[in-house]
Predict the structure.
Amino acid sequence: MGTSSKKIAAIAALSTIWPTGVLPQQGGTASPGGLQMDFGINSKVTVDDNFELNPSSSGTTTIFDNRLSFGLTSITASQELRLTGSGVLRYAEIPGRTVSGFEDPRFQFNYKIENSNSRLTADARYRRADREFLDPFQVEQEEQILDGTGLFTGGGTLTTRNASVTYETGLNAPLGFRITGSHAEKQYEDLSILNSRLFDTETDSIDATVSAKLSPVTVMRFNAGHKKYRADDSVQTERETVDYSIGITQDLDQVWVLDARLGRTEVDTTDTTGSRTTKGTNGLLKLTRTLANGSIFASYDSTVNQNGTREALRFGRDLQLPSGNLSASLGVTRTPAGNTGSNAAITYSHALASSNFNLSLKRDVSTNNNSEEIVDTRLAVGYDYQIDAISSLNFSVNYGRSASADDLSTVPTVERTTLTASYSRALTQDWDLTGGVTLRRRSDTSAPGDAESNSVFVTLDRTFSFRP
């Protein structure tokens, strides 16, 4: 915060005269091996008639963002290192206030080293962002999260930190071992609207698995895990989960595979209201048949959390199409309280000579951080049409809905929809220009009225790479 608009404008101006003659290699971030450095700059101007998504707009907002990004990739025969980072130089004129400065710093680290029989991987991620400027659908895609909290408004700052280390040995031996340790935390600051479902959380977990290849068609697995969860919620929740199981994967014949697991889970919860323990059986029974153009499966899954035992029945099909792929599963989920809801997971892609179509749908019943049973639905649709070698049209629809899985619950129903249409054109080999419109809509049963916004945007970006 605190950077002046003149300084940001100067930096943006410099971006337009970024030197081009010293770039040995242009475009892309994929590295075939060795050391590669990637740099990018993205300048975007957005004008929105209701940026804050209030039921009644307070006026027009203008946002000028300049995202600077870098990446370092080093690949050898046995090791792989990836380090990426980015940040935004922002100037925004919002009715009644101005926001300026360096925002949204992001860093990600990935490392892997392996040989013929063992592998070590380490990953870390950091992000600190103003929630007011976050697109919840983009965050879920980038951070691979789906907990419903992104649909809630409230401004403020969200800081996320994640780290994990995994060691595997016996990759090609009769006896194998895998252990993973991870840490994840979310921290909220300066929420403009207090929301009992937005609070700091911290989770530490460790999982270990021993696998034994009893024969070419039989693999036994022994798994044990421990998770500790802490939340700065209204009752200061602390929770420890211990689970263990034994499983088997068996090739019944050339096309049928059986995957089965049986175990026990114990959850100890402590908060200001007291302590309680939940115990139950966890298990999995899955039967898969390989077909000429994909596979089909049926599965029954039982898991245990602080609320009790959840059971899910699913039937699925993976289908290889001449011009695309389809993966779909449908079923029902029974919550610990005995309520039943449908679950679904569908991904579909279709490619033609000059266009691409993608669809994904996910609907499931889960337990949120407040130990409430919710039905979470996400739908994403995208269509790209290549007009010619340098220009294209892009359309996307994102829809999210979070609601109670229990008719007697006080969980609010929150819906968000984002529609975007844009036109992209390559100005030169190095620079791309994109312009478009975005329509947003939000409804929340705990808020007074629905909100809508309309915005237009123009983006100028460039990404280049070189090898030292």
User: Anything to note?
Assistant: DSSP finds two helices and 23 strands in the chain. The mean pLDDT is 89. Helices lie at 5-15, 136-143. The longest strand covers residues 97-114.
